[in-house]
């Protein structure tokens, strides 16, 4: 593995924890959801640290900001999919406490980073 600076960022580390939490939660989903909401949640969660990594290595502040906006959108996607999971009773709201905490932390940091990049543009 490459020794790259984004791996030292708390937001990246927290996003990796979020991926692990999504995988843990979705491992309890019914098997018939494997290619449905389980897959959607896992893909969205993996895209978060991936887009943080890729975005921070872009040259321009505009590109960096855009990748972080996409990343933040993936968090909103996860939030919606978890709400659906609760509504259709394949997930219990009490099982997502850690996910809520991790998502909120990543969302707040991304919002601050986006704001800072946009100030510099």
Question: Which helices and strands, and how do they pair?
Answer:
Blueprint lengths: L9 H17 L10 H20 L4 H27 L9 H24 L1
Helix pairs in contact: 1-2, 1-4, 2-3, 3-4
Task: Describe this protein's structure.
This protein starts with 9 loop residues before the first helix and ends with a helix. Helix 1 (10-26) packs antiparallel against helix 4 (97-120). It has helices at residues 10-26, 37-56, 61-87, 97-120. The model has no long low-confidence stretch (mean pLDDT 95). By secondary structure, it is mostly helical. It has one domain: 23S rRNA-intervening sequence (de novo design (two linked rop proteins), Up-down Bundle).
What would you say about this model in short?
The chain is mainly α and 121 residues long. The chain has four helices and no strands. It has a single domain, classed as 23S rRNA-intervening sequence (de novo design (two linked rop proteins)), CATH 1.20.1440.
- Beta-strand fraction estimate: under 5%
Instruction: Please write the CATH class name.
Output: Mainly Alpha
The chain-level mean pLDDT equals: 95
Number of helices: 4
End-to-end separation: 32 Å
**Structural class per helix/strand content?**
mainly alpha
List keywords for this structure.
121 residues, mainly alpha, de novo design (two linked rop proteins), 4 helices
